[in-house]
């Protein structure tokens, strides 16, 4: 755990203590600890390793123990207890700009306000101005702070929103009156991040459905409950909207609420030219006569379009392609994926052994799995020395004798150093089945310099794939400013594949870059970058992103059978 994270936890503890009106000395102690830890020149993890936590100046014995617990276990029982006994809504109120824990405590004591919704209501009703130290201006500030918060509320990663929506859909589907149900919105288009989660259902007893929905145990607050639409928050401020629509409108509503906006605007223009009107209720002639809307495909059919998969509905040429003649891409599907090119074992920083990973891959029906542990210079991630890698190759080869129709590929995620040199010699790389090369340091270099580093790795005849090419981490870090066009050209020239890293926080290449690469004839390699066996399942997000990038089976090397893949790898490059 990094110093900054520890500091954040301590300052949150101080805030919670203050909300609960606890001993001011204790509050001060945590505020100080947060400041001291954040300013330390050395990582606390290192200090712990040499047993020096107790010697950090300004930190008392009690807090030193808490730091040790955090570093050793990645959690802090005191913090969890504190959070458990404090309503989550109170803590969340601290996110409102300029609203401190003292005010939150006051609002709770005097008015019983425990969450942002209650606060907003009280501010609108002009109740807050009667509190000591508050006035009309404070109410205005609080309301504009809440607006700001709503606007900047963080988007949720697809990898979080998708399973969440699936579990809600499964729950609601158990209600006997629910006939059809689906996710809509950007989630159905499988965008890398999602604002609100939209769900659409049909039922003859909407009230019953809304009751189950708003009463789900995970609901932290109900924003609205109506006959046709309800909205709730679950856990950390994730908004879920459920609409119940008439059976005859389900297709039209699904199309409408799936979007995107620019896709729908183009569709409405097309409809207008044909003397038709489409909206969330159906397809109509100008006379008002209804001619469709029960099925989503009705909308596309009346406009003489082929059905457009949700992942393509971004208004980026898909409508033109769906008109006769041009043809839409035959998008890659999850079933076509026969293996994973990027997996870490417990030889480096992964959690599972190679046999465990192989067993998990076989359960997924894969024909191959590339073990690509980190290389020697990546000490923090347990990078393998030449010797260890040679030992791993031997073990994998022995293990492979026990399989039929399945093979573990000996690989490495070889580091590209700050000058573009690879971490292992060609001699060693030549002994491997597959080599993926990646940048893990020197992110701050200029884009042109990083582009050159990657290109020099592509020039190596043993490098098959460039992993997570842009290095972005969604919500945390932008990718490097690469010259993507140039990189794609060089990938094509050198016969190097580009990775689509399927980890939800990476999805790198992005959908847009996948489209560029695919159009240029550069092959894409899907890799989960799994650090444990369960993570192999994030492949679905990689596939979704590939689909958003218009990729077909032929663009993605994971669709090759084992024998075809080995042949390709034996011929060098991809
Ligand atoms: Zn990596
Ligand atoms: Zn990796």
From TrEMBL:
Gene3D superfamilies: 5' to 3' exonuclease, C-terminal subdomain, Beta Polymerase, domain 2, DNA polymerase beta, N-terminal domain-like, DNA polymerase, thumb domain, Metal-dependent hydrolases. Its EC number is 2.7.7.7. Keywords: DNA damage, DNA repair, DNA-directed DNA polymerase, Exonuclease, Hydrolase, Nuclease, Nucleotidyltransferase, Transferase. GO terms for biological process: DNA repair. It is an enzyme of class 2 (transferase). GO terms for molecular function: DNA binding; DNA-directed DNA polymerase activity; exonuclease activity; phosphoric ester hydrolase activity; zinc ion binding. It catalyses: DNA(n) + a 2'-deoxyribonucleoside 5'-triphosphate = DNA(n+1) + diphosphate. Residues 339-418 form the Polymerase/histidinol phosphatase N-terminal domain. CDD domains: NT_POLXc, PHP_PolX. NCBIfam families: PRK08609.1. PANTHER family: PHOSPHATASE YCDX-RELATED (PTHR36928). This is DNA-directed DNA polymerase.
């Amino acid at each position: 755990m990094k110093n900054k994270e520890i500091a954040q936890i301590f300052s949150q503890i101080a805030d919670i203590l203050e909300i609960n009106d606890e001993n001011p000395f204790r509050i001060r102690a945590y505020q100080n600890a947060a400041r001291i830890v954040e300013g330390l020149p050395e990582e606390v993890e290192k200090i712990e390793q040499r047993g020096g936590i107790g010697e950090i100046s300004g930190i008392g014995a009690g807090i030193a123990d808490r730091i040790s617990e955090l570093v050793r276990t990645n959690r802090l029982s005191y913090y969890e207890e504190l959070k458990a006994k404090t309503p989550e809504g109170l803590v969340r109120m601290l996110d409102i700009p300029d609203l401190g824990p003292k005010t939150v405590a006051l609002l709770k004591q005097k008015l019983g306000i425990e969450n942002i919704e209650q606060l907003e209501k009280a501010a609108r009703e002009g109740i807050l101005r009667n509190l000591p130290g508050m006035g009309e201006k404070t109410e205005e500030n609080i309301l504009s702070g809440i607006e700001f918060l709503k606007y900047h509320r963080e988007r949720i990663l697809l990898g979080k929103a998708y399973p969440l929506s699936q579990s809600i859909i499964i729950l609601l589907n158990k209600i006997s009156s629910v006939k059809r149900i689906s996710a809509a919105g950007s989630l159905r288009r499988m965008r890398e991040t999602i604002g609100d989660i939209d769900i659409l259902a049909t039922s003859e007893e909407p009230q019953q459905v809304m009751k189950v929905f708003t009463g789900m145990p995970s609901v932290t607050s109900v924003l609205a409950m109506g006959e046709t639409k309800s909205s709730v928050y679950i856990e950390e401020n994730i908004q879920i909207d459920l609409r119940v629509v008439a059976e005859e409108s389900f297709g039209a509503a699904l199309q409408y609420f799936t979007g995107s906006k620019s896709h729908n605007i183009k569709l409405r223009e097309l409809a207008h030219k044909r003397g038709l009107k489409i909206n969330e209720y159906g397809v109509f002639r100008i006379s008002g006569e209804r001619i469709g809307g029960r099925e989503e495909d009705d909308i596309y059919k009346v406009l003489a379009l082929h059905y457009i998969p949700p992942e393509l509905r971004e208004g980026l040429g898909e409508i033109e392609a769906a008109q006769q003649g041009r043809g839409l891409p035959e998008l890659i599907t999850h079933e076509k994926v026969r293996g994973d090119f990027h997996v870490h074992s417990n030889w480096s920083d992964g959690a599972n052994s190679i046999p465990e990973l192989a067993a998990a891959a076989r359960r997924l029906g894969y024909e191959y799995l590339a073990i690509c542990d980190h290389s020697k210079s990546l000490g923090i991630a347990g990078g393998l020395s030449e010797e260890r890698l040679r030992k791993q190759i031997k073990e994998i080869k022995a293990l492979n004798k026990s399989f039929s129709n399945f093979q573990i590929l000996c690989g490495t995620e070889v580091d590209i150093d700050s000058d573009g040199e690879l971490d292992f010699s060609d001699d060693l790389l030549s002994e491997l089945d597959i080599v993926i090369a990646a940048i893990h340091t020197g992110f701050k270099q200029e884009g042109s310099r990083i582009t050159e580093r990657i290109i020099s790795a592509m020039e190596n005849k043993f490098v098959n794939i460039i992993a997570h090419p842009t290095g972005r981490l969604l919500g945390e870090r932008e990718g490097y400013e690469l010259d993507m066009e140039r990189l794609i050209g060089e990938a094509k020239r050198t016969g190097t594949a580009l990775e689509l890293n399927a980890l939800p926080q990476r999805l790198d290449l992005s959908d847009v870059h996948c489209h560029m690469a695919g159009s240029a004839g550069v092959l894409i390699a899907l890799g989960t970058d799994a650090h444990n066996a369960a993570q192999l399942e994030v492949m679905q997000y990689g596939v979704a992103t590939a689909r958003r990038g218009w990729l077909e089976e032929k663009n993605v090397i994971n669709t090759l059978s084992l024998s075809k893949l080995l042949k390709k790898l034996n011929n060098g490059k991809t």
